[in-house]
Specification:
Layout (H helix, E strand, L loop, with lengths): L2 H12 L2 H5 L2 H4 L2 H13 L3 E5 L5 H7 L4 E6 L2 H13 L6 E4 L12 E7 L8 H11 E12 L5 H14 L9 H10 L2 E14 H6 L5 H13 L2 H6 L3 E3 L2 E16 L1
Parallel strand pairs: 1-2, 1-4, 2-3, 4-5
Antiparallel strand pairs: 5-8, 6-8, 7-8
Length: about 260
Amino acid sequence: MSEAHQSRVQAQFGASAHDYVTSAGHAGGADLDRLVAWGRKRGAPRVLDVATGAGHTALAFAGFTPTLVSVDLTLPMLEAARGFLRSRGGDRVRFLASDVVALPFRDASFGVVTCRLAAHHFPALLPAMKEVARVLRPGGSFLVQDILGHDDPELAAFILEVEKRRDPSHVRAFTHREWEAFLKAAGMTVIDEETLAKSRPWDEWTARQRMTPEAKADLERFVLAAPARCREAFEFTVDDGRIQTFSDRLILLRADRD
């Protein structure tokens, strides 16, 4: 990850770390439940949570994992996650500052690696997937969840603009085909998969990235002026000219290292 992009990510998430701790969408739901179910079946004694954010995934796995390590690029986010887990009894989780493309661990160190709602910030997916595969033991599982990219060019361009206006550190969401190709190229094979829709309350979603009133108003004008098929594809709801909610799709994958 370039220094410029690292700085962009750190600036974006350092200021809003606490907002991610209290985010209901990150705290749980059917998406996290699925990753946990896959993780319980694997029963790995050592788990790595990459780009841990506020630590909700780490907390969920800490209940049945003897050794759990969480890494993130942003120090304020790591501090928020450490405080959050300690308040919930997750004292045994170890936290380290690290970029996903330069993990400070030996080859084959973990039986499971998790990564939830972070890959759309990676400048390139393949280098990150190769590093994940490197630290996984043979037969170990990568459990990943992220926003699912669209194959339709117009819809993909529309939601990319929405995401980048809200969060300048957003790079893009990858399609199902891209995920499978990059995982395969990194030496992993998809074993399980699921796609879920998730509703986003507009005011909470924009506030979490601390958008200025002007930037939020500009974004709302962009959405309302977009072709109707774009708003319909993401189920935007509008009341009295104000956006209330929208939905995006999440891809969940379990990929085992060959």
